[in-house]
Amino acid sequence: MGNTNVNLAELIGSRICHDLISPIGAITNGLELLDMVGAVQGPEMELISGSVGSAGARIRFFRVAFGSAGEQPLGRAEVTELLKDMERTGRVRVIWNLKEPVPRNQVKLAFLGIMCCESAMPLGGTVEFKTQDEKWTITGTADKLNVDAELWKHVATGRFPNKITPAQVQFALLPETANAMGRRVSVETAATRVLLRF
């Protein structure tokens, strides 16, 4: 995949997320109004509310991970709020140790890294972020990991011998996006830990 394709994919990702977030927001507002007037109550309402909240959180996350991203900063509060919303709907806990705002394109890399780690944690786990001298380290830990060795082995080069599936797209986008920013991805895997650096 060349840079032109990556940029096109980013634009498509931004467009889809932009177009979906408005109706999801409208449904959320409608549910809040129904709740205020007591029109609908019970487990059905909780199920619908939870599902809409989950969809909204995922779309906002995907907008950063797959959308176009420049140097504009994202503040700690905005990133951690988004990650907390994601935690409510998933099994992975995220520790964002960064205190200062971070350029959006670097947050994009971080979110792609979360998705890579998440794929190896079917029973849940923890993903922790650290930076030093603008170098990122993402550490995913879990009692039980399910690491696809072929995918992780080739993340550094971005050349995969087998066809990438839609569920694995983050593994292809991470090295391509890093390369476009002049960064290189390195990987370490162990029985209970996966580590990404860029």
Describe the structure.
The protein is an alpha+beta fold and 198 residues long. It has helices at residues 3-37, 43-66, 76-88, 104-119, 149-154, 169-180, and strands at residues 73-74, 92-96, 102-103, 125-132, 135-141, 186-189, 193-197. A five-stranded mixed beta sheet has the order 2-4-5-7-6. A two-stranded antiparallel sheet has the order 1-3. Strand 4 (125-132) and strand 5 form a beta hairpin. Helix 1 (3-37) runs antiparallel to helix 2 (43-66), helix 2 (43-66) crosses helix 3 and helix 4 runs antiparallel to helix 6. The longest helix has 35 residues, at 3-37. The model has no long low-confidence stretch (mean pLDDT 88).
Q: What is the CATH architecture assignment of the largest domain? A: 2-Layer Sandwich
- Which segments are poorly predicted (pLDDT under 50) over 5 or more consecutive residues? none
Strand numbers in spatial order across the main sheet: 2-4-5-7-6
Measured as a percent range, the helix fraction is 40-55%
Structural domains: how many:
2
- Give the integer mean of the pLDDT values: 88
